[in-house]
Model the fold of this input.
Amino acid sequence: MKSSRIVITGVGLTAPNGNSLSEFRANLLAGVAGIERMEIRYMGPQLAGVCHFDPLKYQKKKEVRVGTRAGSIAIHCAREALADSGVDFAALPKDRVGIYIGCTEHGNVETENEIFNISKFAYDTKFWSHYHNPRTVANNPAGETSLNLGITGPAYTIGAACAAGNMGLIHATQMLRLGEVDFALCGGISESIHTFGIFAGFKSQNALATHADPHKASRPFDLARNGIVISEGGGLYTLERLDNALARGAKIYGEIAGYHVNSDASDYVLPNPVRQAECIRAAIARAGLTPPDIHIVNTHATATPLGDIQECEAIRAVFGEGCPDTFINNTKSYIGHCMGAAGALELAGNLPSFADLVVHPTINVDNLDPQCALPGLVLNQPRQVAKVDTILNNSFGMLGINSTLIVRRFVP
Amino acid sequence: MTKDECKQAVLAIIADIAPDEDLGHVKPDVRLRDQLQLDSMDFLDIVMELRKRHGIEVPEKDYLQLASLDSCANYLTPKFNELAGKS
Done:
């Protein structure tokens, strides 16, 4: 077992309201959301969070043509994270680098595209693309990243529904501690806005947000919330063992303090606040902390009427009234639900709080739902606070997967 | 269709499947793979696009006929003209 201290040394991201951590953070503090109307096949215009990075910054045209949107997002984030980390990538042994990317799903976009393609040829399957299989294998985004960067270590995805972003970081932490790799690119990505199926599925579930103003559509904790805004995005980090990071003089954003993953085992889609609370408590315990030691709780809340209340119930059960230094926020109110990227992006949006001691707010709360009225909820305006030493990030997903990740301020 | 027109049709396909390549100096008598970054999947793309755009089928045993622009023209021009005669 190698040094157990794992630190974050680089961040690369693309979000609907920013393509770098500094741009993303600035918009979170300025209350700038990033939701727009997007034409969805068979459905017409729908609200969505769309990323506007330039894929050709890091890929050839042919790579973009042959690959997937998920691959482009992953490559963009990985390259940005590497650049941010300041690591001498050329000197890094490529077989000792791991790529661990969380995904909510993969392959729906590419399969729908091919079915649409052959629909123009009377559904004759001889027109089905020979790229279908490499595009739809579950490891596609990680594999495209390994190809683009020449990384020969383990590269795969972690399927964990909307808990996947946290899972990428958690898995990388485990692999670094096991000594399987010396350097990890990890986090989560999502291309989900390019599949009509996810929109139609949430609509059939009465869980798709509507609002005249796209930027107001994602409104966790507001009484008028009416569902999820589906978004794409990506957030990848460079993680290293502390000794390696210190040896190269790396900038350190924070240290992985604790985590936990569990399962509801109770329903396909409905969350379970009892299991969520167990997950949060176990992560805090693993970090050697108690609830009052947590300074920011970034919620998973997606703005479904029931889901928000249930997460608030879990948070209330853990933190109660006795945590005066604990502040609670939500990032989906700006960027919608980035699915597999959600946890990774939402953590990134809060990391700068270690430096500026500002908690970004949950926006779009015009009338707070009394059932979501948690102590410490930061609403509509950023809040300057006295202390931010710990950030707890919740990400939950369908089939009852719960993940909690805690990052602490780095103190040598 | 003339052989030159056939070559232009093939180059139009290659322009889409190999968009990073400069096609201004492709030598018609040299194997495409020896002068462009084309792999086996790209050749399957050429076959697919001939099927989609022009209704031309190239059986696997004839793939070698697509090696160069000249061999493409020799092999495909009669097929183009046969299809034109049918329409």
Residues 292 and 324 of chain A are 7 Å apart (CA to CA). The longest helix of chain A spans residues 69-85.
